[in-house]
Amino acid sequence: MLFHGKARMPAPEQALPGRMEPMGVPSGHYVMGTTLCPPFPVGLELALFGLGCFWGAERRYWQCPGVFSTAAGYAAGHTPNPTYEEVCTGLTGHNEVVRVVFDPAEVSYGELLRVFWESHDPTQGMRQGNDAGTQYRSGIYCYTDEQRRLAEETRAVYQKRLNTAGYGEITTEILSAPTFYYAESYHQQYLAKNPQGYCGLGGTGVSCRDGQAGLAMGQT
């Protein structure tokens, strides 16, 4: 039975039980040829974002210079090792996310945040465009205190810009990074394997930049 309150997070006692076995993961990134699984090279860092359907979100990040690898998955819910079908019921509480492995010497976390804010509409609550449900909510999941600081700082700056453009309040959740569960193999780098596939990602058109001067926020 489908969960008819997919616009609401389920309570832990409502969540599907899941399983102990993790999802199988491809040996390499379809586009970049790098590994999807740790251990990653020394000096690289992790970032985790939810900004709608993970197909388009992952593509945005593998196109960023300085990104070593990306993976589509599920996070911030209750069910261990969920399947896509389970997530779609609304009974796991998970968000569709992309985990980004990046080299901070080549791309800053602030730049990754810029891509995040500009690539979707963070004011839509439990949806993104025509995709509705808890799995499409906007979220930044932080691995360090510095990531949280930058996420909150850029949210405040971007809120002012959205208000000026006539948008409402940002609904993005900013949390400490929860357990990341890999999505099924066919979801990994989906739009590279299926170039004509669906991408529901669409931004507001509100920029994070000040003219040509570079990033207006999150420069560290």
UniProtKB/TrEMBL annotation:
InterPro entries named in the record: Met_Sox_Rdtase_MsrA_dom (IPR002569), Met_Sox_Rdtase_MsrA_sf (IPR036509), MsrA_MetSO_reductase (IPR050162)
Any one annotated GO CC term: cytoplasm
Pfam families in UniProt: PMSR
Entry EC number(s): 1.8.4.11
One MF term in the entry's GO annotations: peptide-methionine (S)-S-oxide reductase activity
Reactions that this protein is recorded to catalyse: [thioredoxin]-disulfide + L-methionine + H2O = L-methionine (S)-S-oxide + [thioredoxin]-dithiol; L-methionyl-[protein] + [thioredoxin]-disulfide + H2O = L-methionyl-(S)-S-oxide-[protein] + [thioredoxin]-dithiol
Domain Peptide methionine sulphoxide reductase MsrA span(s) in chain numbering: 47-199
Active site per the UniProt annotation: 53
GO annotation terms (biological process): cellular response to oxidative stress
Superkingdom of source: Bacteria
Keyword terms, alphabetized: Oxidoreductase
PANTHER family to which the protein is assigned, alphabetical: MITOCHONDRIAL PEPTIDE METHIONINE SULFOXIDE REDUCTASE
Protein family (similarity comment): Belongs to the MsrA Met sulfoxide reductase family.
Cited function: Has an important function as a repair enzyme for proteins that have been inactivated by oxidation. Catalyzes the reversible oxidation-reduction of methionine sulfoxide in proteins to methionine.
UniProt protein name: Peptide methionine sulfoxide reductase MsrA
Encoding gene, per UniProt annotation: msrA
